[in-house]
Amino acid sequence: MPLRLLECMQAEMITQGVGRKPATAGSTLPPVWLAPRQGAVGPGQERDPYMHPTMVVSLYAGGGFPTAPFEGFWDAGRIVDVRIRSLDAAAADDLALELHQIFGDRQNWDMGGLHVEETQRYMPLQLISTDRDLGWDFLIRFMFWCRMASYLA
């Protein structure tokens, strides 16, 4: 279920015009990776023609909260960590604002084929680290409430 949520969030980011699939070349939008095994890739870190020169986004399942007894029909409080690696801190801040407008404080909506009961920004943009060559590494978190049946659709 967490991977399905990440896939739907990626699809929504693509639909809203703030990201692209990593395998899509020739775009000015940053790639949105789904839980890369080696960690959040930084711009210019990979010698890949599909990489964006200044910004890369990675989505991770960030845990969540268990449901109450007899409420197993909810996938309560699923958290998604959004890592933004950017050579331009202001551009990362702009993207975080766009993500908040897309995913923050919404109810009863469809996200990339998944019905979402409610979303909210769980943690505002936080600086994780800086690197002279790879720029800034930021984290923002969103929380999703979905019905379990939504994942099966």
Write the layout of secondary structure elements.
Elements: H1 2-15, E1 32-34, E2 55-61, E3 74-86, H2 89-103, E4 106-111, E5 114-131, E6 135-147, H3 148-152
Parallel strand pairs: 1-2
Antiparallel strand pairs: 2-3, 3-6, 4-5, 5-6
CATH superfamily: Phage tail protein-like
- The percent of residues in helical segments reads 10-25%
How are the strands of the largest sheet arranged?
Answer: 1-2-3-6-5-4
Radius of gyration: 15 Å
| Unreliable residue stretches | none
- Count structural domains: 1
Q: Which CATH class applies here? A: Alpha Beta
Order of helices and strands: HEEEHEEEH
Could you please describe the fold and organization of this structure?
- The chain is an alpha+beta fold.
- It has a single domain (2-152), classed as Phage tail protein-like (STM4215-like), CATH 3.30.2000.
- 22% of the residues lie in helices and 39% in strands.
- It has three helices and six strands, in the order αβββαβββα.
- The protein has helices spanning 2-15, 89-103, 148-152, and strands spanning 32-34, 55-61, 74-86, 106-111, 114-131, 135-147.
- Strands 1-2-3-6-5-4 form a six-stranded mixed beta sheet.
- Strand 4 (106-111) and strand 5 (114-131) form a beta hairpin.
- It is globular.
- The model has no long low-confidence stretch (mean pLDDT 85).
Q: Which descriptors would you attach to this protein?
A:
globular; STM4215-like; 6-stranded mixed sheet; 153 residues; alpha+beta
